[in-house]
Amino acid sequence: MNQIINLLSSSQSQYINFLRIAIFVVMAWIGGLKAFQYEADGIVPFVINSPFMSFFYQNTGNTAVNDKGETVAEYTLHKNPEGKMVQKKIEWHKSNGTYLFSYGLGTVIVIIGIFVLLGIWMPKVGLIGGLLTFGMSIVTLSFLITTPEVYVPNLGGDMPTPHYGFPYLSGAGRLVLKDIIMMAAGLVIASDAASRIKL
Questions:
Q1: Beta carbons within 8 Å of 63's beta carbon, 6+ residues apart
Q2: From the CA atom positions of the chain, what is the Rg in Å?
Q3: What gap in Å lies between CA 106 and CA 156, rounded to an integer?
Q4: pLDDT number for residue 27
Q5: How many C-beta atoms surround the C-beta of residue 78 within 10 A?
Q6: Looking at residue 196, what is its pLDDT?
Q7: What is the 3-state secondary structure (H, E, C) of the chain?
Q8: Which pLDDT band holds residue 15 (cuts at 50, 70, 90)?
Q9: How far apart are CA 121 and CA 44, in angstroms?
Q10: Within 10 A of 174 (CB to CB), how many other CB atoms are there?
Q11: Are 129 and 120 a contacting pair, CB within 8 Å?
């Protein structure tokens, strides 16, 4: 047991670098996917409901009438499920600015990931990457407050829905909540970079 403790305690800097690599992989992969239609369509509920980002879209605040005669947010009628291509919905997303925004966001995310990775060799760049990772996570976690799709909806059925709304996270909500780990990781790598800068 002492050998394991000694190994872990003497390898902390390598583990922090592994954390940098892990953040880079996530940022490069997720950021890169923003160039693809299904991912761009998928982030619309987060962006259009966010007070920090909704102004990037052209159709924010628009409403429409669904097939049940209910007035709903217009974007809800134009969701393309992952793996499904509906031309009419894609045209709506083009007019909304969905794809252009997604390309820009993806580029920013990849750049943050590169800054984090470069922190292995350049602590000043790594400090910026860590702080940007922390800040990005704050924005992402704000979706738990602003985005209805992060909680299980009450869709009805032939029996009552027992668990819906807060605190019952949907798949999207569970994905968002994991960013609290990225938030902590951003602070760890920023702190490590700051310590190396002081030396």
A1: 71, 72, 73, 74
A2: 20
A3: 36
A4: 97
A5: 21
A6: 94
A7: CHHHHHHHHHCHHHHHHHHHHHHHHHHHHHHHHCCCHHHHHHCHHHHHCCCCCHHHCCCCCCEEECCCCCEEEHHHHHCCCCCCCCHHHHHHHHHHCHHHHHHHHHHHHHHHHHHHHHCCCCHHHHHHHHHHHHHHHHHHHCHHHHCHHHECCCCCCCCCCCCCCCCCECHHHHHHHCHHHHHHHHHHHHHHHHHHHHC
A8: very high
A9: 36
A10: 10
A11: no
196 Cβ partners below 8 Å, 6+ apart?
Answer: 123
- Tens of pLDDT along 127-149? 999 999 999 999 999 999 999 99
- Cα–Cα distance measured from residue 150 to residue 148, given in angstroms and rounded to the nearest whole number: 6
pTM for the whole structure: 0.91
Q: What is the pLDDT of residue 159?
A: 86
CA distance 190 to 137: 14
| Tens-place pLDDT, residues 74-90 | 999 999 888 888 899 99
Tell which residue, 109, 104, 112, 111, has the closest CA to residue 57: 104
Portion of the chain with pLDDT greater than 70, in percent: 100
Distance CA 167, CA 157 (A): 21
Amino acid at 21: I
Cα separation, 23 vs 118, whole angstroms: 11
Phi, psi of 101 (to 5 degrees): -60, -45
